[in-house]
Please model this.
Amino acid sequence: MIKSNSSSNIALIKYMGKTDSTLNRPTNSSLSWTIDHLKTFIEVIPTNEVKDNWAPLESEYSINLNEKSINRFLSFWCFLKDHFGIKGKYQIKSANNFPYGCGLASSASSFSALTKAAYKLSLSQGGNELSVADLAALSSQGSGSSCRSFESGWVCWQDNVIKKIDLPYKNLIHKVVVVESGEKKVSSSEAHRLVAGSSLFPGRVERAENRLIQLIQALQNENWRDAYQISWAEFWDMHALFETSKPHFGYMTHETIECLNLVREVWSINSDGPIVTMDAGPNIHFLFRPEQEEFCNKMLNKFFKNFKVL
Model:
């Protein structure tokens, strides 16, 4: 049996839209924070079955993949087997320690974990060693954002290469307010395709690349407020693409808007608060500085006690 795991990540500068959907090549650069405590776990078990198969691994948040998702997962597994020259048939078991398919970047953690598992299996069969960069590039062909999960902390995906960036803010506290844990109706893959038809998509690449420069500069200068404002503008930009696509779609709920307004109130009262962002889903990600731990707990207990917080 081969075991692997990998963390999720949350982009503050978003990857949304593709120049090559087959290879998952992004239209713009992105910057993410790796979420060490949200993980996917995988077990690869040899089987006498005639073909590879998938099954849920027992967990608090069991993954019940639909047929389309299972086929996508196993298709990439077969691609990895062929790439590495892996022999034999296997059952792939996977599970998260967080909800699946609701905007918490489960594809990033699951496809990076699957790539790591295939690589470990390859090495056990005498395969060649690969660099982290090579593994990340390989994983991105299954899920673009998964390449950023191969490094910790701040990770930039630029010109189809990942690199870990050394920035002053380290050991950040990540929290996510789970507004809705059900599987979203429009997948991230479908969202990537639909946003190309948005009237706001022209100029999107330039806006994202400019924000990347601005955000890195704000973080380097330890200007937390600017980092918050840039990240806030960026996730709203992405969700505006969703709402202006043809056909238009959206992820934000009434509760999402209420929560975002509460965060705005926190910043207004305290002249400080968390960096806020959202993925393609209704749930809200917060990043707090280490010295904000007490502030973080008070804020979450006061404003978000009716929601599950991970």
Notes: The radius of gyration is 19 Å. DSSP finds eight helices and twelve strands in the chain. The chain has a mean pLDDT of 94. Helices lie at 67-84, 106-124, 132-139, 188-194, 204-220, 224-243, 254-270, 293-303.
